[in-house]
C-alpha cells in the first residue's frame, strides 16, 4: 500500500493528493492484515469515510467456532474429515485406497450415479467441509464395504480400517455425522446465498432470516429427525442403519441398531442443538459492523421508516443517521427527513419490479430539490459492494 501511494506521488503534479482525496470507500474481506491496510490508507486518504468489510469470510467462522462447544462433534469431524497421518480421517484413508478407487466407483456407476473421485475438501475454507460430510453420509453402505475389505488385509492399513469401523460404526456417531452434514450444508447455503458480486441490501438480511428459521425448525425444534424429512443426510444415515444391520470385517462383526431408548436415540440431536444455538449466538459477533449491509441498511426495501415496530424503525433511523454522519453531511436531521420523503416512491418502484438500487435511483431523480437525500443515494449507488470473493 505504501508503494502505491509513493507511485501516485511520483507521477502526479499534486503529489498524488488529488487522486487520494477522491477515495471514499475501502473494501476488504475483514482479514486482520487488510484491516491494518485500511487504517494506514485512511491516514493519507482524507475523504475515505467508509471501510467496507464483506460478510462471507466472517460468517465462515460462525460454524468453526460453534463446533468447539461440542467435544464429541470435534472427534467425529477428526475421524471423518480432518485427521491426518499417522491416524488419517476416513476421507483421507479412502482417497488413497485402491479398493475405494475401483469398487466404490464401480458401485456408483452400477447405480447410475456420477463417479465420486475423492472425498477431499479445501482446508482454507471451513464451509467446504460440508462436501465430504455429505458424501460420506449418503454413501455409507459402499464406504463400510470398502473399509471391511481393507480390514481383511494385513499391515497398518488393515489395522486402521478396523479402528475406523469401530470408532465410527456406533449409532450415536453415525447419526451425529449425518446431523453435522445437514448443519454444514445449511451453513454453506447461508454463506453462499449472500456471496454475490453486486447484491441488493435485502440479500444479506433475507439470508440471515432464512438461516435462523431453518436452524430453529430443523435443529432446535427437531424437525430434522422427523419421518417427513426424507431428503436430509441424517435420514439417509438412519436408513443405512435399518438396512445394513451387520458388517463382517476381519474376524470381527459389528451390528447396526436403532436405540430403543428415546433419550439415546435423540442424544446426537441434542449435541448438534448445542452447536446450532452457539451459531445463532455468534451470528451478531461475526457480522462486521462496518460491512456494506450494515452501512446501507437504511436503503433496504420495503422501507421501515414508518414501521409500527419501534425497534425496527429505530434501527433504520439509527443506520441512516450514522451514514449521514460518516458522509459528513452538515444537517443530519434534514438528510433523514428527506430520505423519509423519498421512501414511499422507492417502495412503489420496488413493488413494481425494480431492484433496490433502481428504485432509489428513480425516487431520487424525481426530487432534485432534496440535495442531501440525493447525496446519500449517490453513495449507495456508487459503492459497488460485494459480500465475498465473487
Task: Give a verbal description of the structure.
The chain has 20 helices and four strands. The protein is mainly alpha-helical and 390 residues long. Helix 4 runs antiparallel to helix 15, helix 7 runs antiparallel to helix 9 and helix 11 (171-193) packs antiparallel against helix 12. The two termini are 22 Å apart.
Shape: elongated
Query: In terms of per-residue confidence, which ranges show pLDDT below 50 for 5 or more consecutive residues?
Result: 110-127
> How many DSSP helices?
20
What is the rounded Rg?
A: 27 Å
Strand content: under 5%
Q: How are the SSEs ordered, and which strands pair?
A:
Elements: H1 2-11, H2 17-20, E1 25-28, H3 32-44, E2 50-53, H4 56-67, H5 71-82, H6 90-95, H7 98-110, H8 130-137, H9 140-151, H10 156-168, H11 171-193, H12 202-220, H13 233-244, E3 246-249, E4 252-255, H14 262-265, H15 267-282, H16 292-295, H17 310-326, H18 332-351, H19 356-366, H20 371-382
Parallel strand pairs: 1-2
Antiparallel strand pairs: 3-4
